[in-house]
Structures are given as structure tokens and as C-alpha cells.
């Protein structure tokens, strides 16, 4: 479905402000929005780096550099999600994530 991610972003943003929902559910919706944004910017930087690096003679950025950057971001987000899932299962708001 075209633009389904964009529609889901706005739906989560709208629903996370609904006070009739459970606080942990609203928190996890907001976390999903922030993680979506956190994944967007690194991919944008990799794309811009590839575009700019391809146009400058003598500058050859290996594809493995972008892949490593993506893997580090993904691993960090995976650990963050794991921490938040465990905290939510214990009924606590995950508040120890440094921002």
C-alpha cells in the first residue's frame, strides 16, 4: 500500500495523545514514532553520502561503510526495543534510556 508508513506515522501520533488509552500503550506508540524518525535520518545520511561521494572524483566510500553504519543503528534500536519490552512486561515505564 503506497504511503502506508506515512499514514501509520500520523495514526500513531494521533492515538498517542489519547488519554483514554493505557499510559504504557501511549508511551510505546510515542516510542515507535521516535524510532521511526531515528531510522529515517541514518538512511538519509547514507543516501546523501552515496550521492555526494559518487560525484566527487577520487572519493570512493565503500558500500561496507554504509552497511556497517546501518547495522550499528539497527543493533542500538533492537537493544532499546528489547529493554522497553521487558520494562513494559514488568509494568514499569522504561525511563533509563539516555536521550
Describe the structure.
The chain is mainly alpha-helical and 99 residues long. The chain contains three helices and no strands. Helix 1 packs antiparallel against helix 2 (23-55) and helix 2 packs antiparallel against helix 3. The protein is elongated, with a radius of gyration of 17 Å. The chain starts with a helix and ends in a 10-residue tail after the last helix. The model has no long low-confidence stretch (mean pLDDT 78).
Topology:
Layout: H1 4-15, H2 23-55, H3 63-89
Helix pairs in contact: 1-2, 2-3
C-alpha termini separation = 33 Å
Kindly provide the radius of gyration, computed on alpha-carbon positions and rounded to a whole number of angstroms. Answer: 17 Å
Helix-strand makeup class:
mainly alpha
Q: Name the beta content range.
A: under 5%
Gross morphology? elongated
User: What is the chains' assembly state?
Assistant: single chain
Whole-number average pLDDT?
A: 78
Amino acid at each position: 500500500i503506497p504511503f502506508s508508513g506515512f499514514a501509520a506515522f500520523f495514526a500513531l501520533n494521533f492515538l498517542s495523545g489519547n488519554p483514554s488509552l493505557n499510559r504504557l500503550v501511549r508511551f510505546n506508540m510515542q516510542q515507535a514514532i521516535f524510532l521511526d524518525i531515528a531510522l529515517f535520518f541514518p538512511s538519509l545520511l547514507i543516501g546523501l553520502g552515496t550521492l555526494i561521494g559518487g560525484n566527487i572524483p577520487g572519493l570512493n566510500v565503500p558500500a561496507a561503510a554504509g552497511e556497517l553504519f546501518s547495522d550499528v543503528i539497527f543493533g542500538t534500536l533492537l537493544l532499546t526495543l528489547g529493554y522497553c519490552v521487558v520494562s513494559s512486561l514488568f509494568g514499569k515505564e522504561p525511563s533509563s534510556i539516555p536521550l
